[in-house]
Design goal:
Blueprint lengths: L6 H7 L2 H8 L1 H8 L3 H8 L6 E5 L5 H9 L4 E6 L2 H13 L5 E5 L12 E7 L8 H10 L1 E12 L7 H5 L1 H4 L18 H10 L2 E16 L2 H10 L1 H7 L4 H15 L3 E2 L2 E15 L3
Parallel strand pairs: 1-2, 1-4, 2-3, 4-5
Antiparallel strand pairs: 5-8, 6-8, 7-8
The protein binds S-adenosylmethionine.
């Protein structure tokens, strides 16, 4: 039987927002890929390693880790069925045989004890209602001395490119969408370090890393994708068409100068958090 403690998140990610993410997996991977190399390098994955990816979504990081652990294996866990389904399909399409997926709540899932050499996550560890319990549970799956590496969003900087470009919509954003709740829960590195220490990890460090954030291959794709995001749709719903259209026009004009050969690209920063399991 599947154990679920984070029922609000399970509902949200199994609902419209999770389905939208799974249906647009390539666009979300394009958006978040700029931090992949730093994350995987921090996890120092060896060819024989067993790797666990928390909140794996549609599994891009699980698959990239599997390509590093050629004689090992990777497991992705996610609370959302549409994500796991898409992850399995993409993995089969790519012919990867050492990456596997499970649907479950990482806070309470029964992981094999002391089994994994490394745990990674690209933005999948911020949503726990009880983060100390969640990271203790995740830590119990790591072998003694096993490595934890994850990335989480930073609080938006007032002069950051995204803050400037999306300002016309930010002023209309009143509350987080259901899937967005908790998104910033680890954005304070001191809090992340306190949680990890309480959960039995040592040597917790947070490093700011910058990377490209590609919103679309061209301006139309970028604007459509931005306005399709769960948090944006949630907050714009019910507003007069003229207000939404004006915001669209403004965002489009602000994004245009960020046109590069690979598409519409802004720069962004995330926290890369690393720690070591002290379990014996
Ligand atoms: C922001 S998305 C990131 C997905 C993926 N890591 C990526 O980079 O594309 C967050 C993911 O965490 C998952 N998630 C949220 N709470 C979770 C929990 N308690 N246990 C497992 N997965 C969870 C969501 O279903 C979602 O797929």
């Amino acid at each position: 039987m599947q154990l679920i403690a984070n029922t609000q998140q399970a509902e949200a990610w199994n609902g419209h927002e999770g389905k939208h993410w799974a249906d647009n997996a390539d666009a979300f991977d394009r958006l978040n890929s700029g931090f992949n190399d730093d994350l995987l390098r921090a996890a120092a994955i060896g060819t024989h390693d067993r790797v666990l990816d928390i909140g794996c979504g549609t599994g891009q990081i699980t698959r990239l880790a599997a390509k590093l652990a050629t004689s090992g294996e990777t497991t992705g866990i996610d609370i959302a069925a549409p994500m796991v389904e898409r992850a399995r399909a993409a993995t089969a399409e790519e012919g990867i045989t050492n990456a596997h997926f499970q649907q479950g709540d990482a806070q309470v899932h029964t992981f094999p004890r002391r089994h994994y050499d490394a745990v990674v996550s690209r933005g999948g560890v911020m949503f726990f209602a009880d983060p100390v319990t969640a990271f203790s549970n995740i830590g119990s799956a790591l072998r003694p001395g096993g490595r934890l590496a994850f990335i989480v969003p930073q609080q938006p900087s007032p002069d950051g490119e995204s803050t400037q470009v999306f300002a016309p919509v930010n002023t209309l954003m009143k509350q987080p969408s259901p899937a967005q709740r908790g998104m910033m829960s680890l954005s304070d590195p001191a809090r992340a370090q306190t949680i990890l220490a309480a959960a039995g990890f040592s040597e917790a460090h947070a490093t700011s890393i910058e990377g490209p954030i590609v919103w679309g291959r061209n301006i139309d794709e970028a604007v459509d994708f931005y306005f399709s995001l769960g948090p944006v749709r949630f907050n714009l719903e019910g507003l007069p068409d003229t207000v939404v259209q004006q915001a669209r026009n403004q965002v489009r004009a602000s994004l245009l100068p960020y046109t590069y050969p690979e598409g519409i690209r802004l720069r962004g920063a995330v926290w890369l958090v690393t720690a070591t399991s002290t379990a014996s």
